[in-house]
């Protein structure tokens, strides 16, 4: 084991709060949904039981309607805003009222296969049921266009919080009733690496809309102030449906398998709507106005991970990757340099996020693009070697940004790039 292997394990163990892992000390002091799924991949290499437990603790907070919340507030911590009192979801344990990209089923499948793919595996079977309920929640509440894509009702649900993709939709959000509040994030990390205040007000206004309608997910989906078809969540859900189908078939759950096959077919066709021919990439679209973001982000390349696209479209995506590579030192930036409001240090407007790079690299390898996949892996390793286990990294300088000793970055080192 190398020194970095030791450090990565140590980060996961130090961020362990007993059955779940905080993304980083201070900035994110609770359990986050997709963070935990990636963290399980990190634990899987040295503590199988702890890997499964991370996922089980997450789904213990699943809502009766099937939603797996984006934050679970297992313990009290004044250092984070918006805390459980602001969300006021009435759940036990307290949670936020929104979800996050559903990578869970994909991770469950991987852990289960690594252990021999026994259809009777009890921990897989319990998590299978949780994933099925969560995917049905997406299909029921988050497919307003009926085309198999995933709508998000808060930019925090995408995990790519301040991506420029959301700017136009956010500009329409009324912030007049937000009132005063105190941000905590900028007390932990440099404000230049975080969303701007005007954006944050909009995030809070969207939260308040959900809270004011009692977290009625139907109403939020129909009438909410933010309704985006997110290319990232849509691609991740499609991949997760494919992985869940493998589990359904193994278990012999024929009705669920048929349902999942139908969803997969619908989504494969639906993705056409996200393809922007002019840009040559899959881009998020506004569900209300139909406008394409026309932006190439790291999520655009999740098409490979989702198994979507014709050879001609793949060629255009690879051309976009080559163009991005020519304009920066490290892959894969969250936003193409030169795009509106690109900023190599500001969160999802440029910095590299290794979990997205990992998913993209996996998809590229599965589509015969081994050299590109390896390039992403190597760049990711170099970033950690030079800067440490940061939340994100500048694609221009390689410097770390956001929180340090970050759980999912450590997990990516252990499970993928190290
Ligand atoms: C935050 O607080 O910035 C989180 O990303 C929300 O999930």
Structure, explained:
- By secondary structure, the protein is mainly alpha-helical.
- The protein has a single domain, classed as Alpha/alpha barrel (Glycosyltransferase), CATH 1.50.10.
- Helix content is 50%, strand content 4%.
- It has helices at 3-14, 33-44, 48-59, 84-87, 104-114, 122-141, 155-158, 167-171, 185-188, 197-212, 217-223, 231-251, 254-270, 302-306, 311-326, 354-366, 370-387, 407-417; strands at 31-32, 71-72, 151-152, 228-229, 275-276, 281-282, 285-286, 392-393, 400-401.
- Helix 2 (33-44) packs across helix 18, helix 5 runs antiparallel to helix 6 (122-141) and helix 16 (354-366) packs antiparallel against helix 17.
- It is globular and about 55 Å long.
- The mean pLDDT is 98.
- (2R)-2,3-dihydroxypropanoic acid binds at residues 70, 156, 161, 185.
- (2R)-2,3-dihydroxypropanoic acid binds next to loops.
Structural class: mainly alpha
Task: Enter the CATH topology name.
Answer: Glycosyltransferase
What is the string of helix and strand elements? HEHHEHHHEHHHHHEHHEEEHHHHEEH
Radius of gyration equals 20 Å
Shape: globular
Question: How much helicity do the residues have?
Answer: 40-55%
How much of the polypeptide forms β-strand, as a percent range? under 5%
Number of helical runs? 18
DSSP strand count = 9
The major sheet is characterized as:
3 strands, antiparallel
Low-confidence stretches: none
- CATH architecture designation: Alpha/alpha barrel
Strand order of the largest sheet: 3-4-7
Number of domains: 1
List cofactors, ions and other ligands.
(2R)-2,3-dihydroxypropanoic acid
Query: What is the overall pLDDT average?
Result: 98
N→C terminal distance: 10 Å
What is the CATH top level name? Mainly Alpha
């Amino acid at each position: 084991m190398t020194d970095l292997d030791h450090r990565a394990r140590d980060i996961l163990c130090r961020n362990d709060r007993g059955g779940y892992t905080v993304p980083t000390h201070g900035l994110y002091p609770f359990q986050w949904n997709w963070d935990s799924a990636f963290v399980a991949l990190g634990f899987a290499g040295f503590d199988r039981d702890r890997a499964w437990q991370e996922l089980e603790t997450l789904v213990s907070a699943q809502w009766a309607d099937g939603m797996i919340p984006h934050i679970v507030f297992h313990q009290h911590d004044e250092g984070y805003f918006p805390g459980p009192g602001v969300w006021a979801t009435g759940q036990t344990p307290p949670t936020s009222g929104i979800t996050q990209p559903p990578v869970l089923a994909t991770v469950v499948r991987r852990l289960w296969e690594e252990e021999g793919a026994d259809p009777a595996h009890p921990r897989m079977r319990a998590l299978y049921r949780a994933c099925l309920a969560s995917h049905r929640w997406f299909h029921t509440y988050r497919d307003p266009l009926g085309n198999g894509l995933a709508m998000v009702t808060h930019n925090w649900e995408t995990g790519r919080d301040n991506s420029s993709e959301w700017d136009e939709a956010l500009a329409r959000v009324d912030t007049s009733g937000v009132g005063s509040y105190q941000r905590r994030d900028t007390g932990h990390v440099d404000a230049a690496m975080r969303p701007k205040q005007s954006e944050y007000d909009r995030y809070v206004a969207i939260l308040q809309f959900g809270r004011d309608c009692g977290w009625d997910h139907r109403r939020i989906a129909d009438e909410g102030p933010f309704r985006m078809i997110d290319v990232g969540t849509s691609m991740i859900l499609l991949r997760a449906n494919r992985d869940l189908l493998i589990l359904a078939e193994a278990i012999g759950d024929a009705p669920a398998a048929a349902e999942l096959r139908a969803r997969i077919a619908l989504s494969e066709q639906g993705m056409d709507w996200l393809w922007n021919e002019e840009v040559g990439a899959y881009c998020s679209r506004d569900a209300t106005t139909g406008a394409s973001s026309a932006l190439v982000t790291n999520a655009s390349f999740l098409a490979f991970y989702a198994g979507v696209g014709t050879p001609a479209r793949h060629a255009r995506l690879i051309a976009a990757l080559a163009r991005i590579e020519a304009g920066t030192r490290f892959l894969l930036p969250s936003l193409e340099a030169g795009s509106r409001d690109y900023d190599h240090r500001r969160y999802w407007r440029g910095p590299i996020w290794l979990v997205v790079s990992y998913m993209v690299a996996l998809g590229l390898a599965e589509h015969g693009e081994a050299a590109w996949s390896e390039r992403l892996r190597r760049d990711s390793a170099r970033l950690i070697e030079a800067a440490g286990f940061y939340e994100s990294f500048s694609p221009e300088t390689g410097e770390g940004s956001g929180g340090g000793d970050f759980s999912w970055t450590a997990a990516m080192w252990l499970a993928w790039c190290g």
